[in-house]
Write a structure and sequence with these properties.
Helix 2 crosses helix 5 (about 155-180) and helix 3 crosses helix 4 (about 100-120). The protein is built from seven helices and five strands, in the order αββαβααββααα. It has a five-stranded mixed β-sheet with strand order 3-2-1-4-5, with helices on both faces. The protein has a single domain (about 20-180), classed as Nucleotidyltransferase, domain 5 (2-Layer Sandwich). By secondary structure, the protein is α/β, with parallel strands linked by helices.
Length: about 220
């Protein structure tokens, strides 16, 4: 039997929910969305989430987490947790990122989040998995998964996963600021801003910095 595949990235502006509409027309049924937050930072974990929402989607305002302001993301986080059929959140810490690289760590964290969903609702092993981006997550070969470019702007399920991942990671980085106040993690969340790079060059890396990344040194200040 031929497996239905989602439409390719559309011309013009994507619209969140178009992949759920495709799934209903194609008779695919329930979906599980996967996304991550934190591939680009110099410090902290990469966090992945998996979400299976009811159909039709019971949450208004879902979209790519990067297009939503922080207060709205926080509200949506609570609604997703309350109304999802199942969800999972997992992280790959800096040591794991340094060991297997950031891409593999991201895909591994996605797989762990997906497994949490399956542990909650085993019937979802039959669901198609939508993965944000061009890569497939490290799931069993029997699982049907579709990498979707700009998926967090095209799918409610991926958008919900992106919000869970983003909010969870931001909260962790704010908490890390209490342990390492010299770096400003509460402001830049570990991303390579000029402020963050200057702090690393001045103080050196702290335990949550990713040693496999190109970190500034004191020579950067000369």
């Amino acid at each position: 039997m031929q497996v239905p595949t989602p439409p390719q990235y559309p011309k013009g502006k994507p619209k969140c929910g178009e992949l759920e509409r495709w799934s209903r027309k194609a008779g695919v049924g329930l979906l599980v969305g996967l996304d991550e937050a934190g591939r680009g930072p110099l410090a902290g974990p990469v966090v992945a989430a998996a979400v299976a929402l009811p159909s039709p989607c019971p949450i208004r305002g879902l979209n790519d987490s990067k297009l939503i302001d922080e207060p709205t993301r926080e509200k949506l986080f609570d609604r997703i947790v309350e109304r999802a059929l199942a969800f999972g959140i997992s992280a790959a810490e800096p040591a794991e990122i340094d060991q297997i690289n950031i891409l593999q760590a991201s895909l591994t964290a996605m797989a762990r989040a997906w497994q949490q969903v399956i542990d909650q609702l085993p019937d979802l092993t039959e669901a198609h998995v939508l993965v944000d981006g061009k890569m497939r997550a490290k799931l069993p070969d029997t699982i049907i998964q579709h990498p979707v470019v700009k998926g967090d702007a095209r799918s409610y399920n991926i958008a919900a996963a992106s919000i869970l991942a983003k909010v969870t990671r931001d909260r962790r980085m704010v908490a890390y600021h209490e342990d390492y106040p010299d770096y400003g993690f509460n402001q830049h969340k570990g991303y390579p801003t000029p402020m963050h790079r200057a702090a690393i060059a001045k103080h050196g890396p702290c335990p949550i910095h990713r040693r496999s990344f190109n970190l500034p040194t004191q020579m950067s200040l000369l």
